[in-house]
Amino acid sequence: DQEMGPHPKPGVATLRTWDHIIANRYKIMYAPADDTCTLCTYGPCDLTGNKKGACGIDQAGACGKIVLIACLMGCCAHAAHGRHLYHWCMDKFGDMKFDMGDEILVDSPLYQTIMGSKPKTFKDFNEGLYYLEEEVVQLLAATHTGQEGAYIDCEAKALNAGMLDLLGMEICDMLQIVAYDMPRGAADAPLIEIGMGTMDQNKGVLIAYGHNLAAGAEAMIYAENNNLWDKVDIGGVCCTAHDLNRIGLGTGELKVPKGIGTKPKVAGAMGWWRKMIRSGVMDCVMVDEQCVFCDVLGDAEKRKIPVLSLIHI
């Protein structure tokens, strides 16, 4: 245990002075796509030159607000994933001990730095998620009409959103590492072949496409428990691909089949998706909550490929 730092669970204004120092040291440059603001129904407003919008905002302020909104998109996506994963793991595995093994010196660096506490079990992560969700709401409220017009304060809030995003990402990975017994600080991690060519076309091919490993993991566990690996090949696309290949390869508490992560394939990246589905490499696709193109269903319908939507698993 370490001495408590000066700012556990910082709020929107807690680190504002430091944020301004950074923003003044590294000058901010905007290159807007156009000179109008369309963020509210008072607009569109012409912000060319020294003009201001109906709410009083100038071009720099509008650009800063767009930056903050963009940062919040990513932050909210990871926070939502963390909340889904927390509920799923608690329901499926129960309140497990948070154990990152002997190879990790600081087992939750971002959580401990930001929250000022050290998680001992899964339930402890609920505090971090509550904090994250409350702060995100405060930041998003600042993007409403007339709430924040100073570009430098939008940038300060964007830095805060980035900090929260990192916290959310770490919570997600710590939950799944422990729940699905993934490697912890392993120096001998195996190399994995990547690409559509790794999928065995003599078997039924299931593609798990997205960001949340829970759905793909259930398919893998079902195949393992029913001795179906000689009949089915499971591949992942985007983040899910990496996570499926880590399941059951750790040294912690085992609640999933040992070594099961060696059996799925890394079929490709998100940017390869259209090539993959149009190549006919898959027999079924399973999508979850993120990293998925909007026209998956349309592309699959044209080729009569079944789509399973498991966003809220």
Describe this structure in words.
This protein has 313 residues and is an alpha/beta fold. The chain is 42% helix and 9% strand. It is built from 9 helices and 7 strands. Strand 4, helix 7 and strand 5 (265-268) form a beta-alpha-beta unit. Helix 2 (59-93) packs antiparallel against helix 4 and helix 4 (125-141) packs antiparallel against helix 5 (151-179). It starts with 15 loop residues before the first helix and ends with a strand. The model has no long low-confidence stretch (mean pLDDT 91).
Secondary-structure map:
Blueprint: H1 16-25, E1 36-37, E2 45-46, H2 59-93, H3 109-115, H4 125-141, H5 151-179, E3 204-209, H6 213-225, E4 232-237, H7 239-244, E5 265-268, H8 273-279, E6 284-287, H9 296-302, E7 307-309
Parallel strand pairs: 3-4, 3-6, 4-5, 6-7
Antiparallel strand pairs: 1-2
